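Standup notes
- DV: blocked on the single-chain target, sequence here:
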Amino acid sequence: MISLQGCSILVVDDEPLIALEVADALTKAGAEVETTHTIRNAVALAENKRFSAAILDQALGDGDSSALREKLCELGVPFLIYSGLEDRGNCNAVIQISKPATSAMLLSAVGRLLNGKSPLT
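- DV (later): unblocked, structure below
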């Protein structure tokens, strides 16, 4: 099992069960997890707290995640998109995992992301 001890992960998804499942898997791996379901709250969190990484849904109730992706790129926070939609935006570092995925697959991707490797290789 991957250890995310000492990591702080932002999870942004407007589907409560998905956000809960992802957060639970990250927490069990040792990460501190912040969840939100809006872009506005996610941008505010990112501006006020240093995250190790983020997992984002592409489309949320208050818009798509492009503004948040830009903010995370600006702040140097690695992230991946966990969505059924495909839109890589302007940031070259964007990795997308299609829903649904197993917790093991997400944890592996986050672990590789934190180690500076592509989650998909």
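- Follow-up: The longest strand covers residues 8-12.
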